[in-house]
Design a protein that fits this description.
Largest sheet: 2 strands, antiparallel
Radius of gyration: 37 Å
Order of helices and strands: EEHH
Shape: rod-shaped
Strand order of the largest sheet: 1-2
Structural class: mainly alpha
Number of helices: 2
Helix content: 40-55%
Number of strands: 2
Amino acid sequence: MGAAPLGLGPGTGNDGAAAQVLSVRIDYADDERAIAQLDRPSRSRRALVAVTVLAGVFAADRISGRLRTAARTARTIAKGDLTARIGPIGGPATR
C-alpha cells in the first residue's frame, strides 16, 4: 500500500469498513497579529480623543459659567433687587 497524502490516511469506521480521515492545519498567527494591531490605538487617535475631551471641557465651562451668572442674578432678584440684570452675552453681569 502506498503512502497517503498529508492529512489523509486510512481508518476504520464503526462498522469495520475502511474510512478516510481528513485533517486540516491553519496558521492563525497572521490573523492574531492583525487583530492585536487593531486593538492598539494609534497616536493620531489618542491625539484626537485628547483634543475632543479638551474641547468638551472648554465648551462645558463656558456654558456652566453662563448658567452660574444666571443663577447668581436669579438669587439677587429673589432677595428683592428687581434691578438685577444678567447683561450682554460674554460681558460681565451688572447689578
